[in-house]
User: What shape does this take?
Amino acid sequence: MQETKTTYFPKLEDVRAATEVLKSVAAVTPLALQLRFSKQYSSTVFFKREDLQLVRSYKIRGSYNKISSLNERQKENGIVCASAGNHAQGVALSCKLLEIKGVIYMPTPTPKQKIEQVKMFGEDYIEIILKGDTFDDAYLAAMKDCEERNHTFIHPFND
Assistant: This one.
């Protein structure tokens, strides 16, 4: 898997801009006090309930924000991602909402239920390609796709 060494620290204005972009897409999720863990660790522990998002994960935030920031040429060329789960769902829904074609590479052993969820969120805007036995295999295939077809890669966590 290709490693990147650049660390990006978002500025406050970047966070505010992302908040604006996501207003119509991502739910404002609550912090829920967890009494058991608070007691166990003698501290106040909260869970951020991102499982209340439509795709049941915070991954919609990053994928939608990134895809919506692409220029028109990139949007026309389409996007690619590699994922075995939540990122794929976020990308699929983002493609549908933004009406952008996407190719999602998933490892061959990905559970059928997860594949069906991705199809449901992306509908006709996505193509799912099962490739290899691991995430790394799917990632390499996705990167090759980007090179060959000039698609934009939507990274699951490093962007």
